[in-house]
Specification:
Elements: H1 2-13, E1 21-22, H2 56-66, E2 68-72, H3 81-92, E3 95-99, E4 103-104, H4 105-114, E5 124-127, H5 129-133, E6 162-174, E7 196-198, H6 206-218, H7 227-238, H8 249-254, E8 259-263, H9 264-270, E9 277-280, E10 286-295, H10 302-312, H11 315-323, E11 327-328, H12 331-337, H13 342-346, E12 355-356, H14 360-378
Parallel strand pairs: 2-3, 7-8, 10-12
Antiparallel strand pairs: 1-4, 5-10, 6-8, 6-9, 6-10, 6-11
Length: 379
């Protein structure tokens, strides 16, 4: 109980933040459906709440008629998405097509652009902050039934985007292959040669962006100065310690990537399969963030996309997120209502000390610096 509330304060205090994975997929030139009319005469692609379908039952009926949902960049081990997808599909009898699970946030946007008008285009997005806020023109405003439960700092007032879950940046490591990591500077030691991987490219992926920010903080930088983080990775590469491999559960379990900088919940999921895998959230350079959930305004399955949002922000969906080691955005309200799984909530990580969550402006400035300097540092 306390752990959820502490994490809530840490994340809320710095307002919103974000970061995530995404995806791309080649698609045949099929045409997307235009979406059927709702009970109130509104096209499904223009519906801004379940009331436009005559209520949740009407939305369910419209979504079932579409029969499919396209998601992208949702690894099964990330935030419990494997279980979430299965639960949604089983509950509503809707087939979920999951494309490119290990892709980046930018890949999600690219896929939507490239596949616009096709039946394979993404219906929904799960994005990091910088990518999400740079592409709001691609989102369809929608307010789920629990919209008022979500703190104002974690949503757009019109429902164009809503934060869904949060966590901390961390270092995961296989204690059977490398010495225990106690702080960021350990990673420069000879014992970690060719062993340190970052989850993605920080110019495209939210997790990698936050990883560089975490490192920057450990080197005296800040959310306003990410340069020390880039310099650290330059030194890491120069020492031969930086491993230019995008880590996945397979690379971790095979031993290819014995040290991984990634979100705590993604790293923590590996401890269930690899007992020697440990997770460190550096207490003096803690970075927290929320991901952004949004509907593609050109979704080929607009009703199913809206039902997916309703499911994610329902008590059932939020508890499934919590089971994945992330803090669901409605955690405080659910705690007060007694609707959150308290055993799961109590197990969520807590950091005692300052926690950094970059503002949209800080993220924009840091993204610009990374675009201009990252490739030269690690290329």
């Amino acid at each position: 109980m306390t752990s959820v509330m502490t994490l809530s304060r840490a994340l809320t205090a710095a307002t919103t933040a974000l970061l995530v994975a995404s995806a791309v997929a080649c698609a045949p030139p099929e045409q997307k459906s235009s979406g059927g009319e709702t009970e109130s005469g509104v096209n499904a692609a223009e519906a801004t709440s379940a009331q436009d379908f005559g209520g949740l039952e009407g939305l369910v009926e419209a979504a079932k008629a579409e029969g499919e949902l396209n998601v992208i960049a949702l690894p099964p081990d990330w935030a419990n998405y494997g279980a979430i997808i299965t639960a949604f599909s089983d509950k509503y009898g809707i087939k979920v097509n999951s494309a490119q699970p290990d892709a980046s946030s930018q890949d999600e946007i690219n896929a939507a652009t490239q596949q616009k008008g096709r039946s394979t285009a993404p219906d929904v997005f799960d994005l990091g902050q910088s990518v999400a806020l740079a592409n709001t023109s691609m989102f369809a405003p929608y307010k789920v039934e629990t919209f008022d439960d979500i703190p104002a700092a974690f949503k757009d007032a019109d429902g164009t985007w809503v934060n869904d879950y949060g966590g901390y940046m961390s270092i995961g490591f296989d204690s059977s292959k490398v010495p225990a990591v106690t702080n960021v500077n350990d990673l420069l030691k000879p014992e970690y040669q060719g062993k340190v991987a970052l989850n993605g490219d920080p110019t495209q992926a939210g997790a990698a962006f936050s990883g560089v920010l975490m490192v920057a903080l450990s080197q005296g930088g800040s959310a306003d100065d990410i340069a020390p983080g880039v310099e650290f990775f330059r030194k890491l590469k120069e020492a031969g310690n930086f491993l230019p491999v995008d880590p996945t559960p397979a690379t971790i379990e095979s031993g290819q990537t014995p040290v991984v900088i990634d979100w705590n919940y993604t790293n923590a999921s590996e401890t269930k399969k690899l007992p020697s895998w440990q997770v460190l959230v550096p207490p003096q350079s803690a970075v927290a963030g929320y991901y952004y959930q949004a509907i593609n305004k050109d979704a080929p399955h607009p009703a199913a996309a809206r039902l997916w949002q309703e499911f994610l922000y329902s008590d059932e969906g939020q508890n499934l997120y919590a089971q994945g080691g992330v803090r669901p955005v409605r955690a405080d309200n659910m705690l007060a209502d007694g609707t959150i799984d308290e055993a799961v909530a109590a197990a969520l990580p807590v950091v005692d000390g300052p926690v950094t969550v970059p503002t949209p402006e800080q993220t924009e400035a840091a993204s610009k610096y990374l675009a201009e300097n990252w490739a030269a540092a690690v290329g």
